[in-house]
Design goal:
Elements (H helix, E strand, L loop, with lengths): L1 H19 L6 E2 H10 L6 H13 L4 E6 L2 E6 L6 H13 L5 H13 L3 H9 L14 H14 L1 E10 L5 E3 L6 E11 L2 E8 L4 E6 L3 E10 L2 H6 L3 H11 L4 E9 L3 H8 L5 E3 L4 E9 L2 H8 L5 E5 L1 H17 L1
Antiparallel strand pairs: 1-3, 2-3, 4-5, 4-6, 4-9, 6-7, 7-8, 10-12, 10-13, 11-12
Helix pairs in contact: 4-5, 5-6
Length: 327
């Protein structure tokens, strides 16, 4: 019993130090003994130093300092720094696919990784800037099932829906249950997607996870092609999610130098640019010609144009003309 009591004591002591201390908030010997006694764990001043020494021998790095006239202890090194935790919290805030309730739960857990004192600071500085959160509360479970299926190399089935003008679910194909081979989970522009392979059509597809429900893992192994695609995910997401559809084409674009950052954001900071005029630059980039590409280009109006190939220049002019005619 004494041995078990000592193990529990060390666990509770470590838990107390992790949650309640940092460089600015050390606990004195008396405070630690009182806190442990309050939860039924016997702790004496003369044995506490030995307990701390044992923890340090095991690599927990408990630091000591003076707290008034007493010796105090704290843990300074943590798995995450405050800036890192802040970045994670802001990412959760920004992600549309995480519902408001789940966002609050996850933020609380992330903040707690910094200890109780820093958790209060992190949560008090929250700025609720995302009012476009989705409402599908089952997304956490869906992500869990899909990740398990990927690890187990099994197929999954699910129903997929859209929303009507009243925000009601309208299931595609009258509630048909899709059976697919999961390849990878991909986060893109505030939404979470599952990339899947269909052996029937020998093609890939992407589904938004917040639009899925009734997700289940089935006892059928995925094909070798689906497994091979997992090694190609990086290139696939680059092509499909940034400018999806069509064949990759090298094009030359000219743009106002105010859009240099925009071009780097879209095509990478390794993109080579040449200044042609005082306020204009030229770059050769690889894109897949699709409605997504035309929509991206159209938003910049006169500030960006295609120089070559000439066929794309004419196609763009034709599309602009059609848009004008519809107004």
């Amino acid at each position: 019993m004494k041995e078990n009591h000592q193990k529990i004591k060390l666990l509770k002591l470590m838990e107390l130090l992790r949650q309640e201390t940092d460089e600015l908030h050390a606990l004195s010997t008396n405070e630690i003994c009182s806190r442990l006694s309050a939860i039924g764990i016997s702790c004496e001043r003369r044995t506490l130093a030995k307990d701390i020494a044992l923890l340090n021998e095991q690599g927990f790095e408990v630091m000591s300092c003076r707290v008034g006239k007493e010796k105090g202890y704290y843990i300074a090194d943590r798995s995450f720094s405050i800036p890192e935790l802040k970045i994670l919290i802001d990412a959760v805030q920004a992600a549309n696919f995480i519902t408001e309730n789940k966002s609050a739960e996850l933020i609380k857990k992330i903040a707690a990784l910094g200890g109780s004192h820093q958790a209060d600071i992190l949560q008090s500085n929250l700025v609720c800037f995302n009012t476009r959160k989705h409402t599908n509360e089952t997304i956490y479970y869906s992500v869990g099932y899909l990740e398990d299926a990927i690890q187990q190399k099994n197929k999954v089935l699910f129903r997929y829906f859209d929303l009507n003008e009243h925000g009601e679910k309208i299931y595609r194909r009258e509630g048909h249950r899709y059976v697919v081979e999961p390849v990878a989970l991909v986060f893109h522009e505030d939404n979470y997607y599952i990339v899947v392979y269909s052996a029937k059509h020998d093609s890939t597809a992407n589904y938004r996870i917040d639009r899925m429900d009734s997700v289940e893992i089935i006892d059928e192994s995925v094909s070798q092609r689906a497994l091979a695609l997992r090694n190609e995910v990086a290139g696939y997401t680059e092509r499909v999610f940034k400018m999806y559809g069509g064949q990759p084409v090298d094009i030359v674009i000219e743009f106002d130098d105010k859009l240099i950052g925009v071009v780097y954001d879209k095509f990478g900071e390794s993109t080579k640019m040449i200044r042609t005029h005082e306020h204009m630059c030229v770059a050769t980039v690889k894109v897949q010609i699709s409605p997504t590409f035309w929509g991206w280009l159209f938003q910049f109006g006169k500030q960006m144009r295609i120089l070559s190939p000439a066929s794309l220049t004419e196609e763009y002019k034709h599309m602009v003309g059609e848009v004008i005619e519809c107004q």
